[in-house]
Design a protein that fits this description.
Blueprint: H1 3-7, E1 30-31, E2 61-65, E3 70-72, E4 80-86, E5 89-95, E6 99-106, E7 111-112, H2 116-119, E8 125-128, E9 132-138, H3 139-148, H4 150-174, H5 179-193, E10 200-202, H6 206-213, H7 217-229, E11 233-237, E12 240-243
Antiparallel strand pairs: 1-2, 2-9, 3-8, 4-7, 4-9, 5-6, 5-8, 10-12, 11-12
Helix pairs in contact: 3-4, 5-7, 6-7
Length: 249
């Protein structure tokens, strides 16, 4: 693992001196059933039809990644696109002048590493923010399916456009304004990503929240404490809260 990758742990919780697992450590021994996938309607392969699955010449496999697993690294040669079935992933941008910055969070049904299709290198380092179930789609399989089904290309462009819109939203909503307002906006973003859990959300580690907002941990902690006092957040388990979005209005 490179020194650059080890630096990204500054944005998350300490790992007690134990290196995070990376993609090469995972056992990709679960054969994905793409045809019957529970999140297929949200995912890249929603465009595929019955006959398309007969042309998957390499098996698509999935794995369960522990928290802090490094899926791929920035500037690493890209050989696959990944589809998230469960959990949450953080994308980290490394800069020699500004350090490491979390630039986006991705959740269930989204694809990551799409730049692999056209650029050959990954643009970010992707790290599991919590336990993650993910499918690995080799580029050869992806290219073959795109050639047979133009709708897959449309779906990929749609996912890419959505991620660009979300990146713009991060800049507009989380990068400017008073910190207490930015914390409220970030909680709303996280609540949207955890919508399947009803009104419950799992907050990332304080260091990650501070990194996303470009603020100190202490300042973010005070802003969250204000939301708790106002009953907008009610702790129900470690780092898990019931969220009353109306109380944040």
């Amino acid at each position: 693992m490179s020194d650059q990758t080890m630096d990204l742990h500054k944005t998350g919780e300490p790992l007690n001196g134990v290196a995070s697992p990376d993609c090469g450590d995972l056992r990709w021994d679960i054969l994905a059933d793409c045809r019957h996938c529970a999140v297929r309607r949200q995912a890249l392969f929603s465009a595929l039809r019955g006959p398309d699955f007969e042309h998957i010449f390499l098996p698509i496999r999935s794995a369960v990644c522990p928290k802090n697993t490094i899926l791929y690294e920035q500037d690493q040669p890209a050989d696959a696109v990944y589809s998230i079935r469960r959990g949450m992933l953080k994308l980290i941008k490394h800069s020699s002048t500004e350090g490491d910055r979390i630039v986006r969070l991705l959740g269930c049904g989204t694809a990551t590493g799409l730049e692999a299709v056209t650029h050959g290198l990954y643009w970010h380092t992707a790290v599991a923010l919590r336990e993650l179930e993910v499918c690995r789609i080799p580029l050869g399989v992806f290219d073959e399916l795109q050639a047979r089904n133009i709708q897959l290309s449309d779906r990929m462009v749609g996912q890419w456009e959505h991620q660009v819109i979300e990146a713009d939203r991060w800049l507009a909503e989380l990068g400017a304004g008073a910190l207490h307002e930015r914390v409220r906006r970030l909680v709303r973003v996280l609540a949207e990503m955890d919508a399947a859990e009803g009104n419950r959300l799992e907050l990332p580690p304080m260091a990650d929240l501070a990194n996303i907002l470009g603020a100190s941990r202490e300042s973010v902690s005070r802003a969250l404490a204000e939301l708790k006092r106002g009953k907008a957040l009610r702790r129900v388990a470690p780092r898990t809260y019931e969220c009353d979005l109306d109380a944040m209005s």
